[in-house]
What we know:
Low-confidence stretches: none
Strand content: 15-25%
Shape: globular
Mean pLDDT: 93
Radius of gyration: 27 Å
Largest sheet: 8 strands, parallel
Number of strands: 17
Strand order of the largest sheet: 10-9-8-7-6-3-12-11
CATH superfamily of the largest domain: Dihydropteroate synthase-like
Bound molecules: iron/sulfur cluster
Distance between the termini: 62 Å
Amino acid sequence: xxxxxxxxxxxxxxxxxxxxxxxxxxxxxxxxxxxxxxxxxxxxxxxxxxxxxxxxxxxxxxxxxxxxxxxxxxxxxxxxxxxxxxxxxxxxxxxxxxxxxxxxxxxxxxxxxxxxxxxxxxxxxxxxxxxxxxxxxxxxxxxxxxxxxxxxxxxxxxxxxxxxxxxxxxxxxxxxxxxxxxxxxxxxxxxxxxxxxxxxxxxxxxxxxxxxxxxxxxxxxxxxxxxxxxxxxxxxxxxxxxxxxxxxxxxxxxxxxxxxxxxxxxxxxxxxxxxxxxxxxxxxxxxxxxxxxxxxxxxxxxxxxxxxxxxxxxxxxxxxxxxxxxxxxxxxxxxxxxxxxxxxxxxxxxxxxxxxxxxxxxxxxxxxxxxxxxxxxxxxxxxxxxxxxxxxxxxxxxxxxxxxxxxxxxxxxxxxxxxxxxxxxxxxxxxxxxxxxxxxxxxxxxx
Length: 447
Ligand code: SF4
């Protein structure tokens, strides 16, 4: 469990030398307890204290990496039960199930389709994270050939699913450079799979009839050298599975029970009566507390809501996603183009940008730094006022970009007009309250 500031303080040198940038060791300890600074900022901490502090600071749920490179799935490292306590760390991976008995053309087609499940939303890339290849044929050669095909295709990461340890090992051996997750080990085959994954440093999914059985298997696998594990909850169907996911998270975080301190993988299709229920199940698992969710649906309309929801869950609730304070150009604006401002809250900014783009009127958008707050919230909190806007105009060199001195402001803050005009000397035009009216405004009202 996490150490308190006082407990950390007792392990520090207590010289108040300030080399860490804090006035006292106690102040540094308090920040360290809240994970706001790194221990490495204190150059004088003893090796012994370092080991104790690093051990205590290790996340209660270990990391498991599936795949390689920056698009690899990182599951685990979570430290809280609820998002209001702190942010969730690693967005759950979403992988699409394919079977190895598809013929070559069908497999290629599905892989191509999965590769296209990729969008840009509020300036961030959201996409399906890979493929879970199921050994439906039961044949080792077929599974291996399909695994090679999948690993060499557009799917970013691979989960290999088979109940047959030999088939899993044969397929994993062929694509081990792409670091697949082997799904999975159980009480009957764990020795063989544990030895293989331990030797090749590959992640291994572990299942059992109950959580107790899984908790007995993970230490044995650890002894075989398997460092990265993923737990397959024993429950069948969404209710049981949710119960187990919650139990696992609580045991790992509240009780620091290391044998279950691993991320999880669930199959959203189990127990789902239809596609809609599968989407709902997957949404529930993404929220609480799956590390990887497998789906056997892959149409864009089925997947996009899940990716959007995941993106929202895994943002930092204490730090809204934001764009830089900057003068953005939409199209190819010139010295006569309209200029409007909005805040640097990503959702607000990209809503405005999307509508300006749709209007096809080349424009400038001034994103004012409001620490990522939306227009009304920023205005109410005095982060958006005539001074912050004037400062943004000066900082972005807007005056040199246009000949006119007309600024379109969000309709929601029409009340700012007078003071803003006085502060900036610009003529203030009150724009629409809703971003969706921007195209009409730019085409019909802007002059
Ligand atoms: S650098 Fe280390 S010893 Fe110095 S004040 Fe900071 S915590 Fe204390």
